[in-house]
């Protein structure tokens, strides 16, 4: 069904190498290949999960697709436009959240944060009040909207980030470990919000280390390890592959599947 | 009108979010105390070195040069502060252009810098018997405004370097020392090495300091219009360089992968 529509995100043989200098006097150049030629497509309205261990290349992929990092080679397209070189056709149609508590102005109130970014996104002032009321209501921060962000809990900051990311009514949202460090209640609230976002027809690219979260939310999952996509399918599809490869008919959890693809099998490029 | 209101709010919120002090005590200590102590220090050194009783000449120079506090440590560090707070990537990946992000932030610093200088002048008038006739104050305020504008434009250039490096302190120190030493505030430009003099002429504040000293000596604003226009044009040129640098360095930072601190 999905392959009949055009992908909203298209990644082909994408590579990214970071260079670093080591030493003080006799500096040596060291290269780290963060992405070794990954490929995948994401279709409109999908929640697409990108799973993998730390340092696998998930954040690098998201940074490239959000126009914050140039690829070394290969293709990274959003809405058919190159993420590096044609950013101006992409930026007003996407938004993103990186995990953790940063990415907000802590000395400003929640409301001032959203007002500032509403101006940055050139949202007409006549629409802003209604939009902010609606967003604060959606993320459950109406009562504390005038409080400084530095007084917010981690979960509240994350919810404010979601409100910020929805300001420009993006068609695609990138969520890089959005539930990082959240307690179970806050994580559940966040999952509900992600589901609501998807229900509005938005496309979501999600990275997470929480298998249950991925299992509950994602339509398809790519497992990435050491800069390569080692598996890509629906959860049911991944389960079948893992069962066949391991000759194990047991009902595998996503965690079992993940461990199988990361540790228990030779890399099979997708 | 919508764009203008947006500009004003962006200016105030970015100032409040990154730079504004949180209490009166903090403002007095950071924005006034430190600059004023520096002004007193250099003015007293000038009195000792030049052996003159009337040190108004040096006092005026040191009062004007106080704008560098806002230029370097306010405007100059803004992109590094954005990087530290994890918000730089949000700005860069937004539909706003460099001008839309960049310029509103310098606006309030222009007025903040002006306020610091005015406080400096009040303190100076109490300690050094500095006196400027009331009739000269409008012209003096105009000079201050232009001086603060060109200093902030210089700060914009410095801030661009924050896109590429996390170690901006070295640049900040060199830039602030250059403003103290090469603008004529403390050392006569014509006594500097020949190769340094053109650099002094390219620095912001050099012309404003000269204009304010001339005004103090009795010159009319009309006599100073040329020199003041020169300072203003220099500010415009520095600002244009800053905007172009922002665009180029953002692209370089995206290529190198250094937009974020971590």
Question: What key attributes describe this structure?
Answer:
A: 270 residues; alpha/beta; Rossmann fold; 26% strand; globular; B: 262 residues; mainly alpha; 12 helices
Summary, kept brief:
The complex is a heterodimer of chains A (270) and B (262). Chain A is α/β, with parallel strands linked by helices and 270 residues long. Chain A has helices spanning 58-65, 110-120, 125-139, 154-166, 184-199, 211-217, 235-246, 254-263; strands at 9-22, 28-42, 47-51, 73-78, 81-82, 94-98, 172-176, 203-207, 220-225, 228-233.
The helix fraction of chain A, in percent, is 25-40%
Q: What's the CATH topology name of chain A?
A: Rossmann fold
What's the end-to-end separation of chain B, in Å? 39 Å
List low-confidence stretches of chain A: 266-270
Structural domain count of chain A: 1
Shape of chain A: globular
Q: Strand content of the residues of chain A, in percent? A: 25-35%
Strand order of the biggest β-sheet of chain A: 6-7-8-3-9-10
- Give the mean pLDDT of chain B: 87
Overall shape of chain B: it is globular
The CATH architecture of chain A would be: 3-Layer(aba) Sandwich
The pLDDT mean of chain A sits at 90
Number of strands of chain B: 0
